[in-house]
Each structure stands twice: as structure tokens, then as C-alpha cells.
Amino acid sequence: MAGFDKVVTSYAEAMDGIKDGDTIIAGGFGLCGIPEGLINEIKRKKTKELTVVSNNCGVDDFGLGVLLHDRQIKKIIASYVGENALFEQQLLDGIIDVELTPQGTLAEKMRAGGAGIPGFYTATGYGTPVAEGKEVKEFDGRPYILEESITGEFAIIKAWKADRYGNLVFRHTAMNFNPMAATAGKITVAEVEEIVEPGELEPSQIHTPGIYVNRVIKGDFEKRIERVTTRK
Amino acid sequence: MAGFDKVVTSYAEAMDGIKDGDTIIAGGFGLCGIPEGLINEIKRKKTKELTVVSNNCGVDDFGLGVLLHDRQIKKIIASYVGENALFEQQLLDGIIDVELTPQGTLAEKMRAGGAGIPGFYTATGYGTPVAEGKEVKEFDGRPYILEESITGEFAIIKAWKADRYGNLVFRHTAMNFNPMAATAGKITVAEVEEIVEPGELEPSQIHTPGIYVNRVIKGDFEKRIERVTTRK
Amino acid sequence: MALSREQVAMRVAQELQDGYYVNLGIGIPTLVANFVPEGIEVMLQSENGLLGMGPYPTDDQVDADMINAGKETVTAATGAAIFNSADSFAMIRGGHVDLTVLGAFEVDQQGNIASWMIPKKLIKGMGGAMDLVAGAQNIIVTMTHASKHGDSKLLEACTLPLTGVNCVKKIVTDLAVLEVKDGAFHLLERAPGVSVDEIISKTAGKLIVNGDTPQMQFA
Amino acid sequence: MALSREQVAMRVAQELQDGYYVNLGIGIPTLVANFVPEGIEVMLQSENGLLGMGPYPTDDQVDADMINAGKETVTAATGAAIFNSADSFAMIRGGHVDLTVLGAFEVDQQGNIASWMIPKKLIKGMGGAMDLVAGAQNIIVTMTHASKHGDSKLLEACTLPLTGVNCVKKIVTDLAVLEVKDGAFHLLERAPGVSVDEIISKTAGKLIVNGDTPQMQFA
């Protein structure tokens, strides 16, 4: 099935077409389950004025944080950006804009973007700064705010296994935002640990069907851990 | 973990607490992946005035259709009811009320019910009888209608494997509406083919986490097929 | 001469492109799968939760847990994915399916479609049809050009309750291929041996005929 | 005497019931897992997508792909389920988690909570806290009763940007256990050796004291 073979062999191909001003939806939670090589390719390409949608913004020298050094990010939509001193500095200097979004709302906004649902109501954030300027509606006597969906020119995600058709399986909690991000990109690129042949993944155990994935590249991951915490 | 052991051994226990006038959310698509024994138990209990939320209403003598004989259903919210002559008669006679709902909207209404999202916008049904009386809102110049979530006193679903904690895995296309229905019941009862010990199901391959499931019963399924279609 | 059901399906199949994800409705649309052109691969989406629908099973492959949206037993193709109904319609509503082919009772020159309900006859329900027409990037309607009584099904405005508005882009009937745009039907091709006059006489809505109308080509 | 962090966690743990699904925030709430009473089992939800969080890993169990919402390496307990972030917050927002325990900067007598932002200091973001307080059936806040400077954290109205409104039902501080209802803090228990007068003096919001206030009991 030539038309369904999503595998590319270079990062240049994987991120081909990205341009200044694009919105990039990125999977990952903290440094867990992030498309390391795709982020590095965006750094290499020096694409500017990006809007990045991701739960976090990496750390200074790893993950999305590496895009801060050359001021490639204009705006970030995230739930938590507290791990990154350079980010803080750029925020104070007005170089970068941030739209803080509750984590569950962010996940749902990505899902809605992929699912053709332009808006949904949630109680999350009602009565807080998050609700400012948003429509409020009561259901069964409780107030909810209207949140709108998010889509982007690109989604960059990290999976464990992919087949050539782009069907994906995620490993443990490295799943996180990746499945929703995958649905919300006009072009979705998956960086994966292993590429298998179609048929090797059990159909009902596929987390992301290949219809959402445009390109698959086999990556080589450092998998840095933010907080190694152990017991005896 | 006594507090998490969801297994019950009788259908009476499985459906304990159901009462006249309850809303029942049922998994299944046609006759595929339906909780056969739980439906039969509702028939045996003669519970009346039920509102049933299910994609279909079974056939005359199987699935939810068996609840029609004793006029147990007051209203059904479904996308397609065309397989059932008795249903048609009761509809014409004014015994039963039907709220036809597009299939995708129905699935999303169940999901929203379980997910604490009281309403969402969809283009589905805009400009059709489905949109009557519903709020319309434009996003990016396209009109969408507001659809509200659905929850019920009970959800009755069918799964393949369950562990004692109520974690569920579905088999092939018998998954269908079952995972969403599972989230939308105040009490969710899963009738399953096999009960395994906790730990036997791979955590990231569980379709429905046990938090949604209150009771699990091992069933004995006929699995009737509506349209056996084969090739040579 | 009017096309057979199979010929309509063959003509629709010419619209397929390599790598298309396609949802085929019940009836003639289902037949399209039999005529996928050489060298082209498509993946069939079945809205009950299957991407990569395979052929019908052999007798010993029949499995009650493996059905399509028409409730027929099917198989999963190599590389298929199976998911729940909410995820299936997220895929449809979100515009990820490249082409939807479905039947209709009526289509009008605004691209509105009526396909699910005939008042006073039995109301079976819309199933997934409203979601499909609202979500698909590209919709082809297949139907006979006129009813058995000769009444046109291509109207100025649909008379039956609608399935969706402003959504039909192309129509393949037993007589013609037409595009719907700018509030009119545009005649693109005619069935072999069918005259433009016959098509004009059987089209109640506004019909634009631009010069010669080529005949459909079947390989 | 004011309770230690561990004692606060021990007291919160007395609120657990067998079969509870619980989300524990960062800090003191995390310690609650160490004091689950005998004969009671709870399952811990971590909002990055894990239901059934186990203990920290041993050195050779450390896996970068297995972390909790605090980004610490963890293990999965037997019978755990792992899912994506949308499904995780569907679980939270939908009210399926029985109890959420989290810290706060301030709580007021309306049950409002401020826990995520101190203007002019660094804005780190709310993470999942707003979803948790909007979705949980039952919320317990743990914090010191007053700041290091002696300023009460139990206020008539929060002064910092809110995390959620009308949501906090119970507060366990280093001095007391309080219920929030009908626009007031209701004193339920005092820490061993702490006087009601001290609690009154350190509670800025409306405080209801009903007769004798029992001391917390630790087994």
C-alpha cells in the first residue's frame, strides 16, 4: 500500500513544510514522551514566530526549551511552565507570550480540535482568571465556561511502536498528551522507537489509528528523567 | 483489595437497585456487544417506565427488544431503530417515545456525560430536524448546534475480559458504544466473557479503567448475528 | 442507457485516490469497494469503529464480534485499527475521512441532502448519516437520477427532512455525473448512450450544461 | 502543639474509605499514601494518566516512561490502568475520583481556593489543579493554618487569584480540622495541645465553634 506508507527516513522530510508563524501541537508531559528529534529538527531549521501548544515547555537544554535559545517561540499555550528559567526570563522580557490553560482543558481542547467539536463547556476555571472573557452558561444550575478547540499546522508526537500505516502504540505514561495532539495537526509527525509491519499491532490495541498520522520516523531517544525518585 | 472487588455472582445483585423510571445507558451496536444477561434480568424484574439510551433497540426477540413485550420502555434515545417491528407498532400507538439522535452525537453525548462536559457544539444535524430548538453558534463562520450530555442511573455494558477491579477490555467491534456508556452511569454494570485476576491485563491496553465500573458479572452469551454475510 | 448499480459503483470508484480513507454507505456505495482501480489502495472506514475493513469472512471466519456499520459480518484488513464509537465519529466529524459515498432520496442545488426519513412512512433513524455528511471533506452521492415514477431526485430544494446542508459536492446517478456548486448542478459526464436532453428532462433543479458533455469512460 | 507535615498527612488519611479512588497533590498530600489505615485499600490516580499508582521504583525499576503527575519516577500497582490525558481528566472532571487532597495558599469561607499563582512572583501555571477542584466530589485542603509571619490562610475572601470556587469541603491544617459550609469555617477538631483560642486567633474568616472541640486522635 504505497499510499499508506507513512515512513520517512530523515528529519528534514519529517518536518518538511514547517514555516514561520505555524502553530505546533506537541505531545509529552514534562520530559516524558516527547518527540526529541523533531524538536531538535525545528531548532536546526530556525523556524520562527511559532505558537507552541504543549502541556509544558521542557527545561532549559532539553525538550521544547531548546527552541527558546534562538527565540523561535512567540507564544505558548501550556498548563505548567515552572521548570524553565530561560522561559521565565523571556516572559518577563516580553519576548514570549503565554496562555496558561488548565491541564484537562488543554487535553480536551486538543481532542476537540481533532474531533470537529469547535467548543465545549467545562466547570474548570469558572470564577478564576481562566474564565475572563469567556462565555458562561448554566446547566442544571451550575455555571460552566465555553472553551474552544485547538488545531495546528503541525502536530509532533512521540510513540513507542508504529506500523508503516501510521498506527501507533504508546508505552506506559509516555502516552499522556500524544494521542490528542496526533488528532489536532493538519500534518502529524510521529517519532517512534520501533517501526513494525502492518498486522503486527493488534487492531483493538492501537492507541492512535494511522488516519491521524502523516509521517513516521524512527528516532533515537535520550529519554531524560526530570525527577528520578526511588525507594530502597 | 476488598473495596475494589467488583465481581458479583448473580444477575439479581448485578441489577440491584434499578427502579421504575430510571434512565439506562446501554452499550452495543445492533446485536453486537450487548449485555444479553443484564437485559434479560431487567425483563425478569419487570421494571417499568424506563428511558433507554442505546444506539439501537435490538430486534423483536433479542437484545433490548425483549423489553418491549411488557411495555417496559417509555422512551428511547437512539440513532437507528429500523430493525424492530414491535417497536414500530408501539411508536405508532404512542406507547413509546423516541428521540432520534445522530450516531456520532449520541456517542459524544455519552462520553460528555461521563467526562463532566455538560454541552458541546457539533455541525452534525445543523439545518435538519435534529437542530430544532437547539442553540446555534458560529465558529469560524460555520454554524454549529449545542448538544447536551447524557447520564443515567445505570449503565449496562458488555466486555470481553474484566479483572476483579473492573478494568475492561473489549473484543473487536464489540467495543462500539460500550466504553462511553461505561462512563455515563451512576452505577455501571459490566457483563463479561471472562474474569481474570488484577495484573493480567496490560495497564496501557485497558479500554475502560475500573473506576467507571461498579459491578462485574460473568455472562453466558448467545451472540446472535444480524446479518451473516460471507464470501466463498 | 441508464447505468446498472455496478456501473454506478465503477464510476464512483474512479474518484478514489491512492491513500484515501473512505467511508462507504449501505447499498450501491458498498459495491464501490469491488472496483478500486489498479494500482490504488484505499482504506475503508466503518463508523461502528473499524478502520481498514476487509472482505466478508469465509464461513469459518464468521465472528459475531466483527461486524461493519451495516451489521454484516466482515473481516479486518491487515493493518486495521478498531476503536470505540466516540473515537470513530471524532475521526468522521473531525474531517479525517477523505471521501464519503452515500445514497440519498433527494439532493438539491444547494448541496443539501435528504436521505433518512420519509414522513408518514416508518422512521428508522439517521444512524451515522448526519455525522458523515457534516464531517466529510468530500461527499459523493449515488442514486438513480429519477424515481420509478420518473420524478427527479435532483431538486431546486429538497422536499424531505434533511440529513445535512451545503455538503454534497458530487453526484453519480445512473444517468450522469454532476458537480454541485454555486447553487446549481453542473453536468460533467453522461452515461454511455444517454442524451443530454434526457438528463435535462429528469433534472428538476437548476442544471448547467457547458458545451459538449463527454460520456463516462469505463476501462 | 502544631502538627508536623507527617501528622497532617496522618490525619487526612483517616478520611480515606475502603475502595476510594484518590488524587493526591504535590507536597503534604503525597505523604497521605504512607498512612493509609489498616484494612483499607485505596487506588491513587495520577492525572498524567495513571490509575493505580504504586510505590517509587527501586533503582533497577526506574523507567523514564513511567512517571507521576509530579514528574517523579513511579511504578504501576497491580491492576493499574494507563490512559491518555484527555481520558484522565474526563475521569477527574466527570466526578469519578472520590477524593482529592491538595495544598493551597489560601481558602475562604465560601470554599474558594487559591493555590496556583502569586502575582508579581513567577507564574508557573495551574497544571491540573483547576480541573481537580472543579471535578472532585470531595476536596480536602492541607496547609499550615497561618503563614510564617502569622497571617491566617483561612480568609473571609481569598486575596490571590482563585483556582476554583465553592469547592473546598474540608481543611486539615497543622492546628485544626475544619468543615466549610454555609459561608463559614466550622471547627471540628483541634491538634493535640492546641487551644481553641489559638485557632480563633489564627482564623481570619468566619469561624463557628460549637461547644467543646475534641482533639484529633492518632492511633
Characterization of this structure:
The complex is a heterotetramer, with 2 copies of chain A (232 residues) and 2 copies of chain C (219 residues). Chain A has 232 residues and is α/β, with parallel strands linked by helices. Chain A has one domain: 3-Layer(aba) Sandwich (Glutaconate Coenzyme A-transferase), CATH 3.40.1080. Chain A is built from 5 helices and 11 strands, in the order αβαββαβαβββββαββ. Chain A has helices at 11-14, 36-45, 85-92, 103-115, 178-183, and strands at residues 23-26, 50-53, 73-78, 97-100, 119-122, 136-139, 142-148, 152-163, 168-169, 185-196, 215-218. By secondary structure, chain C is an alpha/beta fold. Chain C has 5 helices and 13 strands. Chain C has helices spanning 5-13, 28-31, 85-93, 129-135, 196-201; strands at residues 20-24, 42-46, 50-53, 76-82, 99-103, 106-108, 113-114, 139-143, 154-155, 170-173, 176-181, 184-190, 207-208. The longest helix of chain C has 9 residues, at 5-13. Chain C is globular and about 50 Å long. The mean pLDDT of chain C is 96. Classes of the chains: A alpha/beta (232), C alpha/beta (219). Chains A and D meet through helix 4 and helix 5 of A and helix 3 and helix 4 of D.
Biggest β-sheet: strands ordered side by side in the sheet of chain C: 4-3-2-1-5-8-10-11-12-13
CATH topology of chain A: Glutaconate Coenzyme A-transferase
Low-pLDDT ranges of chain C:
none
Given the helix and strand composition of chain A, which structural class is it? Answer: alpha/beta
Rounded radius of gyration of chain C (Å) = 17 Å
Number of strands of chain C: 13
- The helix count of chain A comes to 5
Q: How does the major sheet of chain A shape up?
A: 8 strands, mixed
What is the helical fraction of chain A, as a range of percent? 10-25%
Our measurement of the CA-to-CA distance between the termini of chain C, rounded to an integer number of angstroms, reads 17 Å
SSE string of chain A: HEHEEHEHEEEEEHEE
Number of strands of chain A: 11
Strand content of chain A: 25-35%
What overall geometry of chain C do the principal axes of the alpha carbons give? Answer: globular
Family (chains A, B): Belongs to the 3-oxoacid CoA-transferase subunit A family.
Keywords (chains A, B): Transferase
Organism (chains A, B): Pseudoalteromonas holothuriae
EC number (chains A, B): 2.8.3.5
